[in-house]
Design brief:
- The chain has eleven helices and two strands; from the N terminus they run H-H-H-H-E-H-H-H-H-E-H-H-H.
- The termini are far apart.
- A two-stranded antiparallel sheet has the order 1-2.
- It is globular and about 55 Å long.
- The chain has one domain: ABC transporter involved in vitamin B12 uptake, BtuC, CATH 1.10.3470.
- With about 290 residues, the protein is an all-alpha fold.
Length: about 290
């Protein structure tokens, strides 16, 4: 049961990692507002459920709220020419107060007595697999369209998008909106899965998303043909299983963020070693006499 819960949470984080993938990997936009838009999705979803509406509507509106957060971040960055880091920080700080307002002035909202997606007899795992598969396939399709190719080009070389007669700022905002929608959806799913929403549940979400992507890239580094979305989702599941294993060994839950930081640092260090080896190899060959 313990590892199953870790797997289920890893799937929820997988949707969040897909959102981080768009901003960080595709748009080359490290969006720090993730830590605010994740609990925004949870707060909006919880407020809709408490209002007596359906769980699916709660997820839909949570995704819309996350998309709106991405719109604001992109607008601040493109309209006022503020760096992406500061734009994300501004939105993240503002969303803390917004989330409290959405929750009716409280820092959290419990959903144990409120009907939600996981309160029935249907197991959580197949439901989450369905959502993750839908998000992954949907993003795969989007990235194969003209819009997706424009997003990829925008992250690699914005001038190419401009030369094609496209508005780079508009595409950047739209990309952040898609990213925010996935993150908001993930937050709402987590709130329904856990049975509560909390304004502090988004702390460290960007780091978790980055750790998932980097862990997935490390695992699939020698395999060709593995898509970015598969890397992100698999990395999120592996990340959660590793953390669950560390907690199972007796580490206190309060060390969760420390475990995440150490895990991310370890992955980055391991990634640097092959590069250093490849850099040293040619010199060794040059020093070898004929």
């Amino acid at each position: 049961m313990f590892m199953q819960a870790a797997l289920e949470q890893g799937l929820i984080f997988g949707i969040m990692a897909l959102g981080v993938l768009i901003s960080y990997k595709i748009l080359d936009f490290p969006d720090l507002s993730v830590d605010g838009s994740f609990p925004l999705g949870a707060a909006v979803g919880a407020a809709v459920l408490v209002g007596g509406h359906s769980p699916l509507l709660a997820l839909l509106l949570a995704a819309a709220a996350g998309s709106l957060a991405g719109l604001v971040t992109g607008f601040i960055h493109t309209r006022f020419r503020i760096t992406h880091l500061l734009s994300g920080i501004i939105v993240m700080i503002a969303l803390y107060s917004v989330n409290i307002r959405v929750l009716g002035g409280a820092a959290n909202q419990q959903l144990f007595q409120t009907p939600h997606l996981f309160s029935g007899s249907v197991p959580a795992l197949p439901v989450l697999l369905l959502f993750v598969l839908g998000a992954k396939l949907g993003l795969d399709y989007l990235l194969r369209t003209q819009f997706g190719f424009a997003l990829r080009a925008l992250g690699d070389n914005p001038q190419v998008v401009t030369n094609l007669g496209l508005n780079a700022d508009t595409y950047k905002i739209l990309g952040l909106m898609v990213s925010g929608a996935l993150i908001g959806l993930s937050g709402a799913l987590m709130a329904q899965y856990q049975g509560y929403a909390d304004v502090g549940m988004g702390t460290g979400m960007l780091v978790i998303g980055l750790a998932a992507i980097i862990l997935g890239e490390t695992v699939f580094s020698r395999l060709k043909g593995v898509g970015l979305t598969t890397v992100a989702v698999t990395g999120a599941v592996l990340y959660r299983l590793v953390v669950a294993g560390a907690l199972k060994l007796g580490l206190p839950a309060s060390d969760l963020k420390l475990i995440t930081a150490v895990l991310l640092l370890g992955i980055l260090v391991l990634q640097q070693r092959p590069r250093k080896a490849r850099a040293v190899l040619p010199r060794e060959k040059e020093e070898t006499p004929c």
